[in-house]
Each structure stands twice: as C-alpha cells, then as structure tokens.
C-alpha cells in the first residue's frame, strides 16, 4: 500500500501544481480532507480553502514548477521532500509583482485512506520566499 500512496502523493504535485489542475484536488483528496500549514495559527483548512490558496500561488507564480526530490512512504503515510522554482509575476501576500525568480524547499506529509488524501501537513520556507521576492528584508547574521 505504501508504494501506491507515494505514487498518489507524486501525482498530487504533478497535477495540482505542475499542470495547474487545481480541481484535481477534488479527485485526489477526500471531501473532508484537512490540510495544515496554509493558515494562521496552523488552523486546518478544507479542500475549498486549499484550492483558493493554490490559485493565489499560481496567480502570483504562474510558472511554478515543483520537483519531488525524495519520497518516503510507510503504512498510510507518504513524506515528500520537494523544491519549487518560480517567477514572481503577480501580487502575492500584499507584495506586487517583482519579476524575481525564487526557489523554495519544503516537506509535505500526507495520510491516505481508501486511495485518497485525508490529511496533509506542509512545512515550507515561507520566509525565504518573501525575502527572495523583496517583501521582507533578509535576516542578517553576525560573523
């Protein structure tokens, strides 16, 4: 079962992010799926809110490309270590388009039941993205 889950997880990244087929989320995830890592205070969101988030990311970074770098799967879970490359050509989180290229890394954990994603946890370098597009100043480290 774990290899099937890993394939489903890779399919999520390919269809939803790389192909921009946001509505594939309805087919790949259960109707009551909960996602963490996209809302303040780690509040869980459902598929409708996730699709809104994904559309806002793709509007700001229409050339986004997700690269699955590693997949680990066991039992009913799959862990995906990924990186994304993109160009900031639309407004994102209040920051107007800059035309700057960005690279972000993240890790996603997905739990599956009956061939669908039922929970997902995403942890990605949001600060790094905001710094790369000029929305925040880089952190200065002492030498």
CATH architecture: Roll
How many alpha or pi helices? 4
What is the gyration radius calculated from CA atoms? 15 Å
Relative strand content: 35-45%
Number of domains: 1
Please outline the major beta sheet: 5 strands, mixed
Strand tally is 5
Strand order of the largest sheet: 1-5-4-3-2
Order of helices and strands: HHEHEEEEH
Structural class label: alpha+beta
Mean pLDDT: 94
Mind telling me the CATH class? Alpha Beta
The CATH topology is: Nuclear Transport Factor 2, Chain: A
Global morphology: globular
Classify the oligomer: single chain
**Helix share bin:** 25-40%
Task: Please tell me about this protein's structure.
- There is one protein chain.
- The chain is α+β, with helices and mostly antiparallel strands and 143 residues long.
- The chain has a single domain (2-132), classed as Nuclear Transport Factor 2, Chain: A.
- The chain is built from 4 helices and 5 strands.
- Strands 1-5-4-3-2 form a 5-stranded mixed sheet.
- A hairpin with a 2-residue loop joins β2 (65-74) and β3.
- It starts with a helix and ends in an 11-residue tail after the last helix.
Topology, please?
Blueprint: H1 2-18, H2 24-28, E1 29-36, H3 47-60, E2 65-74, E3 77-87, E4 101-113, E5 116-124, H4 126-132
């Amino acid at each position: 079962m774990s290899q099937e889950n890993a394939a489903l997880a890779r399919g999520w990244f390919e269809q939803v992010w790389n192909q921009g087929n946001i509505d594939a989320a309805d087919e790949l995830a259960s109707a009551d799926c909960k996602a963490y890592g996209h809302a303040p205070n780690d509040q869980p969101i459902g598929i409708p809110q996730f699709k809104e988030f994904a559309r806002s990311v793709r509007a700001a970074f229409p050339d986004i490309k997700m690269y699955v770098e590693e997949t680990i799967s066991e039992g009913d879970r799959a862990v995906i270590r990924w990186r994304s490359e993109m160009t900031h050509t639309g407004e994102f989180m209040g920051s107007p388009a800059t035309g700057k290229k960005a690279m972000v890394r993240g890790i996603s954990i997905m739990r599956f039941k009956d061939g669908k994603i039922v929970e997902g946890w995403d942890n990605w370098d949001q600060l790094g993205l905001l710094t790369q597009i000029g929305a925040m100043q880089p952190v200065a480290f002492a030498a």
